[in-house]
Amino acid sequence: MMVAGSPPTEHPLVALITGASSGFGLLTAVALAKQGYQVAATMRDPGKAGDLLELARKELVANAVIPLQLDVTDSESIHQAVEEIMARFGRIDLLVNNAGFAVGGYIEELSLEDWRQQMETNFFGVVAMTKAVLPQMRERGSGCIINVGSVSGRVGFPGYGPYAASKFAIEGYSESLRHEMSPYGVRVVLVEPGAFRTAIWHKGLARIVSHENSPYRERLEAVLRYSRLAGQKAPDPGQVAHLIARIAAKRSPRLRYPVGQGARAMLWGKERLPWKWLEWIVGRALK
Fold first, then answer.
1. Which among 37, 106, 163, 173 is annotated as catalytic?
2. Is residue 163 annotated as part of the catalytic site, yes or no?
3. pTM tops 0.85, yes or no
4. What backbone phi and psi angles, to 5 degrees, belong to 150?
């Protein structure tokens, strides 16, 4: 099945998604399979593919979803996965760079190792994946790379400095990549979700760096309260998966797609309000 507006091809379209064991990645894998893609749904531990395969069976696309082992921080793992996909299908039409996690804590108290781990997955993992698939896209003159960023890549928030830094890096990287790939027919897109109900909330909160005698303890606890409340009220992550599927079908997608009411409101505020007002709003939210 093909969707109107999809790039023409005589072969089944092939998508590679990172971080597909849960959240946006899992739902996007199924959404793309329903749109006619053969989906290489990659994850560090394919043993965690149970929820993905169950949903794929329920949606009658199990034959189009193939779980594969891939760790975006391991160059050999990336090489093996891409080689297997190319050997099986001969092409990769769509790369969805979704794998990521959140490191939290106040900047003074975070170790450099915390920062390196954050950047290694959220930024360098995206660069490594892109480099692995770009040659065949460029040579073929077609392809699409969708980087799953965040509203945190446009607006920093206290307590999540490493995560914001990694997502800000993805913004600049994607702009440069889009300029470079435009002459070769490769589309580059940023999806910028706000808060959605995904496992990143639970995993991120579990990784918060906090010390009992920290001078930031009360403020960090306020950040945690706000994060928990946002996670509870957050909308269905299926919105993001469906957006990615729609973008994949576009011939000329724009660069940025903010998604979620919180994302659009925050970006509107940053673009139009004085910085002091924005600081006041964030401060009030944490009280």
1. 163
2. yes
3. yes
4. -170, 155
